[in-house]
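Reviewers asked in the last cycle whether our approach scales beyond single polypeptides. To address this, we selected a multi-component target totalling 358 residues and predicted its structure end to end. The input consisted of the following lines:
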Amino acid sequence: MLNTLHQKKGWQLLLGFVAGVFFGFFLQKGGVTQYDIILGQLLLQDFTVVKIMLAAVVTGMLGVHLMRALGWVRLQPKPGSWATAVWGGLFFGIGFAVLGYCPGTVAGAVGNGFLDAAVGGLVGITVGAGLFAAVYGRIQKPVLSRGDFGEKTLPQLFKTKDWTVVLPAAVVLTAVLWLLERAGL
Amino acid sequence: MEWLFLERWSPYAAGIGIGVLSWLTFLLSDKALGCSTAFARTSGMAARLFRGKKVLQNPYYRKFAPQIDWEWMLVLGVILGAYISARLSGTFDWRWVPPLWEQTFGGAVWVRVAVAFLGGVFMGFGSRWAGGCTSGHGISGTLQLSVSSWITVVFFFAGGIGAAMILFRVIGG
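The resulting structure, written as structure tokens, was:
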């Protein structure tokens, strides 16, 4: 569905920009363009980041899987391996704490006027991504592909229907949010 | 329309907004929200300025061509969207050093910028190593129930919590 729209390059650049405006708006209103809120999460004092992420995941998961069942959209699960998840995840995590923004919220922080995000963050992330591009050819096969799990989704892993995972996951993630509120976090 | 001017929304309102936005990007653009490949493309564009066309031979830039694409425009849009929101909220603020940082490590601008740069390098390197960031894996990948994304996001937070504790409880404590 909407394949013709997906092929129109100029329209897609405009749609990407418009989606970004909304994304940035929601991030700023949610408070996560602020260093203090992100560090508050990593210091386990303020659970705003987790609340926004889980609310987005539950909402997105239900809608995207419904549209997929109707044949309107296709999934694009990310490939990965134990090596990309563990080492990439830990490097990212260190950066998350030291910079105090992530690649999306750093752009939001720039829009908020935060100059450490603009001068340190944007430049640092770009340099880091460039360093990765420089070593990628050498580490791709010997390192990154270790323990590959491909583009698998949890329903494929458990050899079951999407909804058998989607509905319980929605319930569990909502319960986690409820528990966070109950614990006063 | 008062909600447009509120300083903060409930995190659930912001999260549900992002979730609905992700429906629309799947439907209208066949794309999932994600931000970190835009930085890889920018690094390629910058490298091309210095080193010319041979940059295009790099296997990573053959995979992620150094050019402006949907996601690059998304990140650009985030800057404007956050700016509009901050202006409407009255929370726009030219600021070099975040309050929590200043309270713990002092107000020196160059120290904060140098550390932010170093953190950014880790983040740029790590996000490309992991193949995604807090939006690409953390929201888009997990909502698609991608196995790699659920495992990756656990390590994002494990690394982040560990490093934040060392930074604020050991070094700054």
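Chain B touches chain A through 129 residues (CB under 8 Å). We regard this as preliminary and will revisit it once experimental data from Aim 1 are available.
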